[in-house]
Amino acid sequence: MTQEYPTLRIGGHTPRYPLIQGGMGVRISGPSLAGAVARAGGVGTIASVGLAVASPHFDGTNYFDANEVTIREDISLAREKAPDGVIAINAMVALTDYDRHIKAACEGGVDIIISGAGLPLRLPEMTKNFPDVALVPIVSSTKAASLIVRRWEKLYGRLPDGFVVETPLYAGGHLGVTKMEQVTDESLSLENVVPELVAYIKDDLKVDIPVIAAGGIWDRSDMERAFALGASGVQMGTRFATTREGDADDRFKQALIDATSDDVVIIKSPVGIPGRALRSPFVQQYLEGTVKSKPCFANCLSHCSYRKDKKAFCIAQALVDAYRGNWEEGLFFCGSNVDRIDHMETVQEIFSDLFEGWKE
Predict the structure, then answer these.
(1) Number of CB atoms found within 10 A of residue 89's CB
(2) What fold characterizes domain 19-248+342-355?
(3) Statement: residue 102 has pLDDT above 80
(4) What percentage of the chain carries pLDDT values higher than 70?
(5) Is the distance from CB of 20 to CB of 114 less than 8 angstroms?
(6) Hey, where are the domains in the chain?
């Protein structure tokens, strides 16, 4: 067994452990979870999408304004739990108010912005007044990473502070590819993409930028495999979703605890890309083509098939229902390892299980 783990440096931020807690919306990873992870020594991540749903600032009509205020407040709440920890925001490029999320996160004092669900080509411009905020795109291929690098170098004279490589083979939620057949494409596996991207950064760019492996990371052996591929860190989402510190309703957590591998399905999300989720009654109806339409929540996506033809559903509302623990009506995103969850554990228990006995 490997007796050492790498040091993960993302811009000017170095967590004690090379682990990022994945951003999970809507409000599955809020300030409670992110703060606990940062306090334990990882990178605690707040998913910026939909934070307003549990905010006293939201009156049913002011979603965008309330969400912006709540992003700032939630970063502050996470910081209270971990004054010396590393706090990140996960912001989706596909959001209608993406620029407002980025602005609010920077003003709120976030350390790292992790951004996917599209290529964050304008992110340096949006954060130019906050040079200490590290910028980390999520990619599924070296091609996507090189496109971001070329654009950022040409227009802004800077490089990303890290890359999260998320494989659609095992990841939870939206899977970062546009076609269903790409979900099982072995060329997008961590075993293929991570070494290729590490070599591109080292040999072509000749810089030291960390690559973080995501998708299917559960235990120490998974981390060891990722580090052996050249990754400097890992990102883990689903295992943290059911922690006692997790922000979701306990009924959401119980749904994941009760899930088996047969309950996991791939759907075509209204966002327009595949997603991995549990086969809840709502999702089963959607797969059968009999789901009742949920009204548009807030026009929150720049590209939304439901808003265009009303044949799918409002994904924001479905995720809100899941966050509140409504099994009948909710969309419960999860990773492929969800069947391995059999109880509710604490964040510290996860870190002890993953890192106890290892040397930095």
Answers:
(1) 28
(2) TIM Barrel (3.20.20)
(3) yes
(4) 93
(5) yes
(6) 19-248+342-355, 251-337
